[in-house]
Design brief:
CATH architecture: 3-Layer(aba) Sandwich
Family: Belongs to the ABC transporter superfamily.
CATH topology: Rossmann fold
Order of helices and strands: HHEEEHEEHEHHHEHEHEEHHH
Strand order of the largest sheet: 6-7-8-3-9-10
CATH superfamily: P-loop containing nucleotide triphosphate hydrolases
Organism: Jiella pacifica
Structural class: alpha/beta
Bound molecules: adenosine-5'-diphosphate, magnesium ion
CATH class: Alpha Beta
Protein name: ATP-binding cassette domain-containing protein
Shape: globular
Largest sheet: 6 strands, mixed
Strand content: 15-25%
Number of strands: 10
GO molecular function: ATP binding; ATP hydrolysis activity
Number of domains: 1
Keywords: ATP-binding, Nucleotide-binding, Transport
Distance between the termini: 25 Å
Number of helices: 12
């Protein structure tokens, strides 16, 4: 367990630094392209050649990424680089101008309404701002996706909601509380419970530990790892939190220069000679974590760690 979580998780590198780094980024691109390909059945999300622009501003260009079954993928990159944009694009909330994104083998952007529904039932999302409905209790919040996608009796829904609340480590009496009555950590857990409402195969988490105190953040990471191990859950986690990357993530993808610069286990990040990746994973904060708790997350057996 991490004992020295960074108290102010601010790893927002500016884009000027990144552009300089990108100019020297050939080695990183080579490392990314040499990452071992996962078998099709192990890939839940496959993005290839994705382009996203807002007006004339290109945010993502020729971006490719795999998310594998049963892994916690940490998605990292400078503030404003497009991490949330990619997440929203995967979820079909942003249009893309090129490329393909398959989720569970289905191209969601091209899918029929029926196919879209079937995909939506298999994923859960915790957005960056927590996004609980403030006028609803925790239980009512968790019931929202159940009402939208399932046809359950009120009794069964209540029972399932109770299970989800227990699953994320909230006390039973949290069910009838409103978001304003909860601590930051409890709000994240309630948001996670709602993301798990439909028993998804994958959850998308956007900066889930930002704003939490170090112990709350470490507890949240532990919860995510437990859910991966017990439910076989796959997790796509956008994060700035180095502790999460070192402790919880099986693989990491770095966004920069509008694409994924490098994708692989922590060992691959530590070996990368891309300047931005180096400064991120070998910076002072990273060194503190490695020194204080030298047990980073183990690569997935299928990674053939670089
Ligand atoms: N709907 C939108 N319209 C125009 N620009 C947007 C929109 N959403 C995001 N952007 C821009 O895209 C860039 C990437 O944003 P974002 O994905 O939120 O960054 P981050 O990597 O910090 O999550 C930013 O410059 C942001 O202003
Ligand atoms: Mg963001």
């Amino acid at each position: 367990m991490a004992c020295s979580r960074s108290s102010t998780p601010r790893w927002d590198f500016d884009l000027v630094t990144l552009d300089t780094a990108a100019a020297n980024g050939e080695a990183a691109a080579k490392a990314a392209s040499s990452a071992p390909e996962a078998a099709d059945e192990d890939v839940l999300i496959r993005a290839r050649g994705v382009n996203v622009s807002f007006g004339r501003k290109k945010i993502l260009e020729n971006l490719s990424l795999d998310v594998r079954r049963g892994e916690i993928l940490g998605f990292v990159g400078p503030s404003g680089a497009g991490k949330s944009v990619l997440l929203r694009t995967i979820l079909g909330l942003n249009p893309k101008q090129g490329g393909t994104i398959e989720v569970f083998g289905i191209d969601y952007h091209q899918a029929s309404e029926r196919e879209k529904l079937s995909v939506e039932r298999r994923w859960g999302v915790l957005f960056q701002q927590g996004a609980l409905f403030s006028a609803l209790t925790v239980a009512e919040n968790i019931e929202v996706p159940m009402r939208e996608y399932l046809d359950l009796s009120p009794k069964l829904m209540r029972e399932l909601t109770r299970l989800k609340i227990d699953l994320v480590g909230l006390a039973p009496d949290a069910a009838d509380k409103y978001p304003s009555e909860l601590s930051g950590g409890m709000i994240k857990r309630a948001g996670l419970a709602r993301a798990l409402a439909l028993d998804p195969e994958i959850v998308f988490l956007d900066e889930p530990t930002s704003g939490l105190d170090p112990i709350g953040a470490a507890d949240f990471d532990q919860l995510i790892m437990t859910l991966r191990d017990t439910l076989g859950l796959s997790v796509y986690m956008v994060t700035h939190d180095l502790d999460s990357l070192f402790q919880a993530c099986d693989r990491i993808a770095v966004l920069g220069d509008r694409k994924v610069l490098v994708e692989g286990p922590l060992s691959q990040m530590l070996q990368s000679d891309h300047p931005w990746v180096r400064s991120y994973f070998h910076g002072k904060r990273a060194r503190t974590i490695v020194t204080d708790d030298a047990t980073p997350a183990q690569p997935m057996p299928s990674d053939g760690a670089a």
